[in-house]
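Archive entry. Fields below.
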Amino acid sequence: MSIAIHSGKRHSKHIHRSGADKWAKILAYTIVGLFGLMCLYPLLLTVTVSLTPEDVINKDGYRLIPSRWTLDTYTYIFAHSGARIMKSYLVTIFVTVVGTIGSMLVTCMISYAISLRELRYRNVIAFICNFTSIFSAGLIPWYVVCVNWYGLRNNILALILPSLFSVWYMFLMRTYFRAISQSLYDAAKIDGAGHMTIFFRIALPLSVTALLTVGLMYALCYWNDWWHALMFIDDRDLFPLQYYLYSIMSNVNAVSSGRVPSGAAANIRLPAETVKMAVTIITIGPIIFLYPFIQRYFVKGIMMGAVKE
Amino acid sequence: MQRTVTPLNRGFRWEMKHNRTLYLMCVPALLLLLAFAYLPMSGMYMAFTKYNVVDGIYGSPFVGFQNFTYFLKGNLYFWNAVKNTLIINFWGLIFGTIVPITIAIAMNEVKNGPFKKISQSAMFFPYFLSWVVIGAILYGFLTANFRVDRKTGELILTGANGVANRLLMAFGANPIRWYAEPKYWKAIVIFLDVWKWAGYNSIIYMAAMAGFDGSLYEAATIDGASRFQQIRYLTIPMLKPQVVILTLMSIGRIFYGDMGMIWGLVGQNGTLLDAVSVIDTYVYTSMKTMGFGFSTAIGLCQSVMGLILILLANSAAKKINDGEGLF
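PREDICTED_STRUCTURE:
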């Protein structure tokens, strides 16, 4: 009886409420839709501009749907600077592959070790790692040490070594390893397995998702890195893709500022509008193609990091 | 029986020998930290020298606090950079909190389906782009090619114009030379910073919201609370701890600018750099003009201030959060 009254009451309230709730729904869909567009539109624009003939861009300006389409820009780029772009591509791929594999080895080993309670100094080691994220030497000492002591100037290792170990991803990985049941390790130990065996045969195979997540995060960092090239690399043969794009854009930027004397500006031959957009697309190409497949791992990783252990 | 129990107070050497493999597994990572984080700290000594390349870090003449007084006393560029850093970080913090929370709450109201999936994928995409790429995409919005005829005042387009200028002209306003007008750039930088991270941060808030007790919402529905009221009186208050923690973390890093962002967007454009140069970019540019000792001194001040603020933020977090700090 009381239940019936209750549900009747709820029903009437529901009718009363539904007007406001409908507005809440509409507002929510609008916010999500608008922000989604704000993120999608720039990318689509870049893609379509790179497929627009140069004269159409100059006449109509940047627009999402051009009056004519063409692949000329891409054929032009590969005919004229194809060799340079291919070189930069190879540098980026080399750095990304070697860097990611190296990072994963270094990161997984230490995070496995300090995820174990039997390691007495695990907290000391965690503190040594953590301290670097709250206090740093600053740019200049880091730069001087890298160049003068380690000789990283114009060295491809400069694009790999400094970012080989990330404390943040280490803690992420440690959280994953901690979730593995200790009894599995104990069983392996009774069978006479050492830590190396347990690490490679039990811990790693059980954390494939985690390895993918953190590995992809490292790979993205290496792929997107232009900062270390800005610091250490002058040799054009060692330019990664991102830095190649940077060097194009910074010329453009300098001229648009109006500070370069007009005589000098005339001497700098700026790449055409469509070329800039096409190089941008070439730079992020693999990310666009892989994005649908890798996105969920990143979401997982962020959620994992958001939940404090 | 007694032999299998491990005594707690075995010495350091016993521990090293017993767990040798595990400690060896830590060595590569620790070596990297030593090489790229701890050894450079010794280079901070440069802040007290007039550094030159020939004599190196420890051979250069010692000058005491001269480098510090030089930038603290009336160096306009330095103080401008400090001001810019604080302004950009402050507004970045405000909007970087409000926007992702709004998105997360709105996302929660959207039914599962293709619309939700596609928009979430779209929102998360900027996180995957480097600042250089974002700078290049931005160019498509802001590029300006026009001149105003001296005699007639007529507007003549001389080439491609970006989306922003096309919009302005569509509404009858005059186009703007964005890359020569510093006054807009603080806003542009803050906007893009929020834009890039909004999708990422909204996932953090959605993760928090997924953990909320559903029965509270059911009870509120039964009591006749509208969705707006539920958001106002349930969701937002329950998100507060998360917001406080993230805010404290940002305050701890308020003196750190994102050099990658500024450099990727503005790069070599000297006209714009004054408006958005942050401490980190000033350290980089002054390294070339003012010498290494001088810029190291700035970096040292920044690091020490940063450390103090992070420790303060951490103790504040512990007080609010029942003894749980930020790290």
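CURATOR_NOTE: The CA atoms of residues 153 and 232 of chain A lie 5 Å apart.
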